[in-house]
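User: Could you walk me through two proteins back to back? I'd like the raw sequence and the structure tokens for each, with a short line separating them so I can tell where one ends and the next begins.

Assistant: Of course. Protein one, sequence then structure:
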Amino acid sequence: MGHTGHGSGVEKLVIIGSGPAGWTCAIYAARANLSPLVYEGMPSQQLLPGGQLMFTTEVENYPGFPHGVQGPEMMAKFKEQAERFQTRVVTDDIVEADFRKRPFTLKSSEGQVIKAHAVVIATGAKANWLNLENEQRLATSGGGVSACAVCDGALPVFRDQHLAVVGGGDTAMEEASYLTKFASMVHVIHRRGEFRASKSMAARILDNPKATVHWWSSVVDVVGKDFIEAVVLEDTRTKARTTLPVKGLFIAIGHTPLTGFLDGQITLDDKGYVKLADPWRTTTNIEGVFAAGDVADSTYRQAITAAGMGCKAALDAERWLAAQGIH
């Protein structure tokens, strides 16, 4: 196998995932001599090792970076710091987990079998996209298409511009309302004739003079070479198309937490996020299995809150391992 740090062939701690939560957990765990093993995931169109920040160009709200930092550069620094303390990293996905007996058994997509005393789930959540070719192209190149208004909305390029938000739930209302602080007009594009959002959240948009709602509309294309110039809207009833000039497009149609591989063994909430046994801790329904970051957080979803949870998970795991007599 070649991945175990000690004779028994059982890892003390395996961390699944490599965003701010996974790397922070690794830094703390490595410094506590738990010799953590991180499965950072395989690169794909939808997600890269490093998580959602790999698709974020400029991060301006992370403390300690007064002039901002590129998302991918920040994740490279997190990883480098974890590796400095001898964290071992495997670029592969964990596709199966058996938490029914201890030590736990994990399987990677390349067929490796890993035994672990403790596991931290930090697999994150992926933003749901419209999956249009130009949307993806401009999202990955920093061309003004984003899945996080709170992350990107305050960037100078979006100020005093017409911006568009796609969605009709509470998140979309929150993102659109946040953007009205910077934009000259926020266009909320929704495929139905009423919002799914709660009345109070919807009111923040419906009563806002800087917001315009486009009902019965879906975005079918994004126009722009290096930077977005417009979106093509299609009426969901008549199929008639119109072009709406905008300088930014924010997709707010939810996130999908990456919990499929857990196969029902870990308690999830109704949205599919890991349900923490104690909201102040990172414990799950299975002793020795912890969760951190966006996979267990549908509320905040920020790099810094994920990092904070990663720290908590490492400390929780360290204390639990010590109580089991595993050093």
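----
Protein two, same layout:
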Amino acid sequence: MADELVDIFDEDMTFLGTAMKSQAHREGLWHKTFHCWLARRTPDEKILLWLQLRTPNKDIFPNKFDVSAAGHIRAGEEVKDGYREIQEELGLQLNKNDIVKLFTSKEIYDGGGIHNREFQMVYVAMVDVSPHDAVLQPEEVAGLYEVEINDFIQLLTGKYPSVEIEGIKRNQDNSYTLEHCRITRDDIAGHSTEYFIKAAEMVKRYVENAK
């Protein structure tokens, strides 16, 4: 993937300067990323959370289900400018005002020569379409699925061994196949379980209060 300039910080989020993303990952420099969880409410009041399937060529968590849309905050950008990732990765037209901040999470990942230190700025947005309406970015997204949010929480807490998801999987010719399958916790990206539970529970409260 293309490299880009990002702001770097110390562990207390004090701004230090800028570096290329590749350097930040190589040297373990703290930087900010944008996470946005997308969800929709069905006519029968179910809350469906969107999961993105990462492509096999990802350096971190390849072939894993992850946050709906995410990316790095470029040098000089406001965090909310990360909403562009929703359009770039999923082809959805959302405005900056459509996303709402939930919390900030710190994550450390070391593996395969990568030393990743992130401040994850976590947001939520409601959508009124399904994954079938998305246009997936070939380099970034292998599929887009929905999971009932209570089922997802039960999976994360270990009460369910697997849950059903439904969505679209991108084929090599960039066509899509409708897919209905079951996933386990091992199929989910390696963020902490605490991160996923916090995100899912806060998204659930947000959608319920948006009535």
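The radius of gyration is 17 Å.

Let me know if you want the two compared in more detail.
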